[in-house]
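Sat 14:20. Reprocessing the chain from the morning session after the first attempt stalled halfway. Input below, unchanged.
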Amino acid sequence: MGRGSSWPGKIALKLYPDILSHLQYPDTVIAVTGSNGKTSTVEMIAHVLREGGMKVAYNKEGSNQTEGVTTFLLNDATLGGKIRSDAVLLESDERYMRRTFKFFHPRCLIITNLYRDQMTRNGHPEWIYDIIRRGLHDDMMLVLNADDPLVSKFGAGRKGTLYFGADHLEGDTTVNDSIYNDGKYCPICMKPMEYEYYHYNHIGKYRCTSCGFARPDTRWSLTGVDLEEGKIVIDGKYKIPLTFNGIYHCYNTLAAFAAADLAGIPKETAAKALGGYILKSGRIVDFTLNKCEGRLLLSKHENSISYDRSIDVVVKDPRKVNVMFIVDAISRKYFTSDSSWLWDIDFEKLNRDNVGKIILAGKYCNDLAVRFEAAGIAKEKTELFETVLEASLYAGNQTDYLYVITCFSDKEKILSLVKRKELS
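Finished this time. Tokens:
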């Protein structure tokens, strides 16, 4: 009917509310939830499992609420209700997984991270923790990010929980240099927590000196990360070249490696499949715009850590670069004009010699301008444009490499004006 990825499932659930409980699932059913990284992680897991010879069904459109999950599952089922594929992968919205898993349970649930995300919708991460907790069942194997204290809390006292995380890496810090620190207090006893090192924001090696809650041991580990060279080492043995050098991507790749291992894919096969894999989800897009080359980094609005990681890519680029921020619509799902989340982003990092012009575009360009002024960035470095078209005309006449940082709601406004390239 041409109504997208959710409508068929919505109609099916209206007619048959518990239809998901009547499907026959394969042995391998893996779900991924969390604030960031769901779509990319599921896509990589699907790629590795296919490279390992498995037939895979997953919600590649990214429709991760119950209706979208229902649509893709029914799409892969026979009239008798048997799933045709060898493996089912589910990207599950953290707010909806308790409803999705009411009638069936994944064998394995991967939780990537819990950050401040869409505050007008999701409130505080601890509230989201409680919502996810209500969707957990005893027959689920939890695979958790050990480096996120709120995520690892899900495994406290729970047998059979497995963890992935990063060892001490070059570039780690002993202080949290972010604007805020959501790992300052223990999620168990709420007393101050100590960190041996931070990978970024509140992600690192932590320990509560009051109750003893601490980063757990990992089954899968990032033992080496070279973001300049674009490669990681897993478990001291498996070397994987990356097409994108963000620390986020390193964690997502590790989570995909862990999922493939649990699905029975040989580790050598998983490492080879992940090496140089180019995401198809459009999170990263290379382009040309008139005189300049550039890259789009999709970063969730109302999610400061997502923006921080994209900014890290910009400031670590050894070239002279320009950067464009587009905030023309806060959300594509609900109305809000709240821009307070801009004050949680570490824009101060852009006070670097390699960063040339900073182009602020869209309806909220003045909100951005106030935030950049507070960040101490010289006004002569910033250019304001109320439309993406005007900003693109200006940026396209510059010769320095251009990064564009924006969200799903605004990405087509820039992509419609550029010529896309294959990632190299």
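Residues 247-262 form the longest helix (16 residues).
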